[in-house]
Amino acid sequence: MRSSSHVVLLTTALLTASVGAAAQAPPPPPGPAPGAAPPPPIGAALQMPPPTVLKPVAPAAAAPPPAAPAVVAAPGAAAPEPAAPAEEKASDPFAFADFTWLEGTNRAHKAWLDTPQFTPEILVDVNYTNSLAHPIDNTVVGSTSLSRNDEVTLSMIGLGGDFHVQNVRARVMTQFGMRSTLVPRNDGSAMRGNFDLDSALRYMSEAYGGYHWDVLHGVNVDAGIFMSYVGLFSYDTFENWQYVPSYTSDNTPWFFNGIRLQIFPSDKFKIEPWLINGWQTYGKFNELPGFGAQVLWQPVEWFHFNSNDYLGWDTQDTPGRTRFHTDNSWEFLYYHDDSNHIMPKIATSITADLGGEQGDGVTPFSGTTGHNDPRYPATCTTAKPCQQLFLSWMVYERFWFGDSKFAVNVGGGMMDNPGRYLVLGPTGNASPFIQNLSTNGVQYVPAQNPFSLSPGTSFEAYDISAAFQYMPNELITYDLEVFHRGSSVPYFAGHGGVTSPDGYISTPSQTGWKADLVKADNRLIAAMMVRF
Fold it and tell me: How far is CA 425 from CA 10, 33, 377, 408, 518, in A?
């Protein structure tokens, strides 16, 4: 039959081709390559299907990755090109290690309320502090974390979270509580023009939107109010090794208002330029904005370095006065052994800052200083400028105990600020700022002896602290601290307070009465911080 003769001819051709190829092929390698499937036996190649209509047969299952079915190419035809490998996604920044030990970093390993489009977040911060001076007006001077003595105080409750839909991102975090007053009061730019910037924005600690590009290891552009990294400590006290920061952090910006660009060239390095309204300001003091950047490098799990640098014009009515600042931090996790259940980790942090102002009668590294009596202020001119300098440092040592459920933190810092341009002004009758109406509509007593923040003054201060923290899980921290601060001039609230003779803002000051400021502040602090 015709079909039978075709089978005979096809069989003869296959045998001839197999014998010829075997004669010309080089000797086989010693063994199959790792992972390659063994060749079929020769006898299987000689078997022919019966002369019936052929039906496609699915290839047998194989161990992953599955091998493609063999294709017999016609003589002289080119072999098919292998499929291009799938492009690998760049690794996420700093995801290669566990950095939850860092000062100023969230210690939770996951977001407990995460969803594909929105990650909600809830912050609760409550404190109690007892000053050995027992001021009669229960007022704390010189802190953005503490506000009231001998009272349980809601420092902050924040409600918000992160939106992430496709590549669009946004973050909103409110702030209700004492911090909505403590922080905005230090921003004099809100006095320029109208619309009450400090009132309109005081209840937003973060509010920005932006876009993410999947290039390099990530590129982000955000605009709005975002957190500052200056001073190492986080604005969210839950993320810190202790509750009250040293001057290097407390006297430098907590937030910026403007635009930032985050570039991650690798998963170990970040560059973040800023274009902002000013040095922790809602608005601008002068015509030019502020410029700055952060460089963050974390090459291994046990080391962290960041540098935050700023240039701006942040003094009212002095457009020719330039401010510069550099803030640099190093952190080392020099002992880490999770099998040691008694003391699994020990770490240290070091921060050093240098800043100054130049122009319009001031200079950073020389000039007049020490004119601390407001009745006899210094005369600062271009020919005879006054000194405006900020030099500070802080060092902390942290020990984790009991499977990292307990921790002890000890340390302190110093600050030298001739010109006092970064000193937190006292409140009440010692306030150097114009004070608006109180929340109940009663006018604050006008300051009769305000603390001077003028060029030509001097200010030196130091602090020492020890903190104990209990962290039963990743959602709550209990904190207990002892804190001592000292200054070269009277600055902290003494027993007489800073408000009025009896401590109430509704009581007029008697002739000759002034705020009771002292050179030392000793206190006990207890706090509870919750973060979902």
Answer: 100, 76, 17, 31, 14
Instruction: Tell me the CATH architecture of domain 118-435+443-531.
Output: Beta Barrel (2.40)
Structure tokens at 319: 């457009």
Q: How far apart are CA 419 and CA 368, in angstroms?
A: 9
Listed residue (295, 345, 274, 273) closest to 99, CA to CA: 345
Place of tokens 């006290």: 237
Checking phi first, is residue 167 left (phi over 0); if not, alpha (psi -120 to 50) or beta?
Answer: alpha
Q: Give the count of beta carbons closer than 10 Å to the beta carbon of residue 71.
A: 8
Enumerate the β-bridge partners of residue 528: 126, 478
What pTM was computed for the model? 0.81
Tokens of 442: 């009663």
pLDDT < 70 positions in the chain = 1-87, 435-446
8 A C-beta contact, residue 411 and residue 399: no
Q: Give residues with Cβ within 8 angstroms of 351, minimum separation 6.
A: 231, 232, 248, 249, 327, 328, 329, 330, 393, 394, 395, 413
pLDDT in tens, 385-415: 999 999 999 999 999 999 999 999 999 999 9
pLDDT, mean over the chain: 86
